[in-house]
TrEMBL record:
Name of the featured protein: Cupin domain-containing protein
Organism of origin: Muricoccus vinaceus
Superkingdom of origin organism: Bacteria
Occurrences of domain Cupin type-2 (ranges): 40-93
Coiled coil residues, start to end: none
Cross-referenced InterPro entries: Cupin_2 (IPR013096), RmlC-like_jellyroll (IPR014710), RmlC_Cupin_sf (IPR011051)
Alphabetical list of Pfam families matching this protein: Cupin_2
């Protein structure tokens, strides 16, 4: 029998992760998170994650550097960060975006702040 559980998450009451992300709905193989009103600043330290990420920009702008390539993210654009790829973000203008990760980022400490 298939899983028929409905998951509904209100972002106003979502738990926050170690870097300020809000965890939204999640399933066994996929999860969502919200980056809300991220402030401009220097580029974040490069990281490699044990999950794939796809994202969509709601407002603001940021630069994504992925394996040496830099792209500008602005409202209406989406992106993919493949599992294991070195990447970093630099917020240019107050930034809000939704991301989905597979497998779920928040399980088994996959979303923990990377150590240098």
């Amino acid at each position: 029998m298939p899983d028929t559980t409905v998951v509904k998450v209100d972002a106003a009451y979502s738990p926050k992760g170690p870097e300020g992300q809000k965890y939204l709905a999640n399933g066994r193989a996929l999860s969502m998170r919200l980056w809300e009103k991220e402030v401009p600043g220097p580029a974040k330290h490069p990281a490699r994650r044990d999950y794939e990420t796809v994202g969509y920009v709601i407002s603001g702008s940021a630069e994504l550097t992925l394996e040496g390539q830099t792209v500008l993210l602005h409202p209406g654009t989406s992106w993919v960060v493949p599992k294991g790829s070195e990447h970093s973000y630099r917020i240019i203008e107050e930034f809000t975006a939704v991301e989905a990760t597979t497998p779920p980022a928040e399980v088994h400490d996959r979303d923990a702040t990377p150590r240098g």
